[in-house]
Design a protein that fits this description.
Rossmann fold, about 40% helix, UDP-galactose 4-epimerase, domain 1, 9 helices, binds nicotinamide-adenine-dinucleotide, two-stranded parallel ribbon, alpha/beta
Length: about 325
């Protein structure tokens, strides 16, 4: 297949490009590099099956080639970015998704939307199955990201119903691994960076919020299987091993061997407004439809991730 990956120079997109190339597909990574980096795909540059297009999905996309599949990952998923660029976040979820769906339709390509567990908002159902409609504040600061993905899902289903487009929707839960940015603002880079620099690990409130962390190699395997499957509706992809943020901070302390203390803080800004209190995927559907479940445990995943951040810190 010739596969387009939007957001292909980002964290997950670049790992997905690696997997696709390894499985013998040709890949066009498209990215405007607003948060992504060419360094993430530098190792693929010499590969005959790989090309990079610098473009913005919110503008008309012309590839000059007919692709067989589209993975639409372009987005601004880090809170640091969507709080700073709220309108760009909504544009990439709306215009960007419209343009990529249009491209898939004209090429007759399969289309996979990278959606998010944030469509469940601060969930009132736990763990979250795909049948749960969510609890999102549309006008809060996080609403720009959450609602852009909810709109993307609705638009994707509209293309499926109106045009018979072969669409897939992945609801991705917290994913971590090498190539995350040091200043990404998400909890994994925050804690690992702080631990490696010997700074206090800043835990919001009392650390009792829960998260479930999926290693990136597991996630991209799930995305690939979903594209190849016949399942149209949304599928949760994430690791169901739930832990509190405080437990996670302790795991990072132990894995880095850091002497950093844990400091509890109450942020006074928009970062934690409407922040979900719990987060755990119900992956029954992914198990039955895709035969997929995560394989990489937290200790192993953290080891690779910490090595990556160590290297980043030594060169900056
Ligand atoms: N990492 C996670 O834990 C997680 C969780 C849920 C959902 N997701 C989804 O997975 C996808 C990838 O996330 P990620 O963590 O790799 O993020 P990322 O920020 O590393 O990658 C996103 C990429 O999209 C690019 N991009 C943004 N706007 C663009 C535009 N207008 N045109 C072209 N490119 C644009 C960025 O430059 C970046 O390279 C996103 O759609 C995100 O919403 C990620």
């Amino acid at each position: 297949m010739l596969v387009l990956v939007t957001g292909g120079a980002g964290f997950i997109g670049s790992h997905l490009a690696d997997l696709l190339i390894a499985r013998g597909h040709q890949v066009i990574a498209l990215d405007n590099l607003i948060t992504g980096s060419e360094a993430n795909i530098a190792h693929l540059r010499g590969n005959a099956g790989f090309s990079f297009v610098r473009a913005d999905v919110t503008e008309k996309i012309t590839l000059g080639k007919k692709v067989d599949a589209v993975f639409h990952l372009a987005s601004l998923p880090s809170p640091v970015d969507y709080l700073e660029m709220p309108i760009k976040t909504m544009k990439v979820g709306s215009l960007g998704t419209l343009n990529t769906l249009g491209l898939a339709k004209s090429a007759g390509a399969r289309f996979l939307l990278a959606s998010t567990s944030e469509v469940y908002g601060n969930p009132l159902v736990h763990p979250q199955p795909e049948s749960y409609w969510g609890n999102v504040n549309p006008i809060g600061p996080r609403g720009v990201y959450d609602e852009s993905k909810r709109f993307s899902e609705a638009l994707t289903m509209a293309y499926h119903r109106a045009h018979g487009l072969q669409t897939r929707i992945a609801r991705i839960f917290n994913t971590y691994g090498p190539r995350m940015r040091l200043n990404d603002g998400r909890v994994v880079p925050n804690f690992v960076r702080q631990a490696l620099l010997g700074e206090p690990l800043t835990v919001y409130d009392d650390g009792s919020r829960t998260r479930s962390f999926c290693y990136v190699s597991d996630l991209v395997e799930g995305l690939y299987r979903l594209l190849m499957s016949e399942h149209v509706g949304p599928v949760n992809l994430g690791n169901p091993c739930e832990m509190t943020v405080l437990e996670f901070a302790r795991a990072v302390q132990a894995a880095t061997g850091s002497r950093s203390e844990i400091r509890f803080i109450v942020p006074q800004d928009a970062r934690t407004q409407d922040d979900p209190l719990t987060r755990q995927p119900d992956i029954t559907l992914a198990q039955s439809v895709l035969g997929w479940q995560p394989k990489v445990g937290l200790a192993e995943g953290l080891q690779h991730t910490i090595a990556w951040f160590r290297q980043q810190l030594s060169t900056c």
